[in-house]
Structure prediction request, 247 residues.
Amino acid sequence: MAKLAIIGGSGLASLAALKITRQQVQHTPYGEPSGVLTYGVYADKEIIFMPRHGNPHVLPPHKINYRANIWALKENGITNIIGVNAVGGITEQMLPGSLVIPNQIIDYTWSRDHTFFDDGLSEVTHIDFTHPYNEELRQALLVAADSAGLDVLSSATYGATQGPRLESAAEIRRLKNDGCDIVGMTGMPEASLAKELEIRYASISIVANWGAGITEEALTMEAINAMLTKALGKVHTLLGAAIPSLG
Ligand code: HPA
Prediction:
């Protein structure tokens, strides 16, 4: 049976609608996850919630122990993960306030522990990453959005940057030339680590702002957080509609 975890991103350190049943400390061979695993019931299904940046939000994107997070979820029998990610919009349709279910990813991150196939291998392993996001999970999210009457963008290429700073205007132009529609700091290596452990993974990306240099407006954390808070209602509606068919 599918077991679902939600990894909450910026603006989603907890799930108000989750009826918490227990919390579990999970140590891993890769160190400590972002926090305890919170088991609970959401839309009548048992799920695990994990805040990617910790709760309170203290871990910047490049300090998150992605390997420990994914390993801990696997240890707890998780087969499906929905990651919630804050992003900047790059191409025209990616309006701030929108929700996007990306279908491709380009990794610009560096020096993050990004693989389980590292030391002490009996053979070198290269996973297939042609389709970084699980198509069935993506479709389940899109069907749920439709049934809930939510307008959700159904495909995008996610450019994963190192952070924690935002990008320069030239970096955003380069990402656009490369084919990125959205930019965020937490999409990788989360997606590939899940794939290495054969966990189905999809992302709900919340567009919090226009990428640097796209408009004249200065990028401020206040404006980004205000937009995330505004869009969070839609994320809860989408999760509430999707989880019954996923958990
Ligand atoms: N760039 C990178 N990550 C982000 C952004 C952005 O503009 N907005 C929210 N997360």
In short: The CA atoms of residues 161 and 176 lie 13 Å apart.
